[in-house]
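User: Could you check the structure of this?
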Amino acid sequence: MADLPYGPPVRVSPLIRFGRWSFLGLGVAYGAFHQNRLSKKEAKLREIEAKEKVIKDAKLKEERQRAAAEELKNLEAMMATK
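Assistant: Sure, the predicted structure tokens are below.
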């Protein structure tokens, strides 16, 4: 240990050590609280998106059926003229 480039390690004050560990614990607690809050918010958004997806899918299906019927009608009209 005598070969350390900056000399022997310095003893850190117990007050500073307590402060560091306290801030670390507070940071972890804040992170967990914030993550929990954001997770609940995201879950609500996913529920709303799931409900909207059902409606959107129904509209797209109806639009595709309408487009297919129109295309069929156009093909029948083209075949009738030839």
